[in-house]
Amino acid sequence: MDWVGEAKGTLLAFFGGAIPPTPEIRTETVSLTQSGEVQRVRASHASLPWSAKIGMIIFAVPSTQALLDSIEEQQDYSVELDGQEVIHGKWRSGATARRWLSNCVGKRPK
After folding, report:
1. N or C terminus of the chain with fewer C-beta within 10 Å?
2. Which CATH number covers residue 96?
């Protein structure tokens, strides 16, 4: 998610049935592993707005450019909340995703 204007910001969110829902948005310390590198970071923990039975973890990203720069060609990831893995996955074709996202962002009004 990427907003411009007065309330600008870039967020990366993961959601799924293994992430416990929560009645209010909370700030949690989670373990984020990307390509074998583990980071303990603060993230928002909430329920998916259109499905209170599904939880989500939301990471603030420093900027759109930081997000673009961090997309690797292939990358695996996982998120642990309270010591439990709540989501994991892997993507491929990062260069294609970077180009697509960069083109999309470039079409926004300045």
Report:
1. C
2. 2.60.40
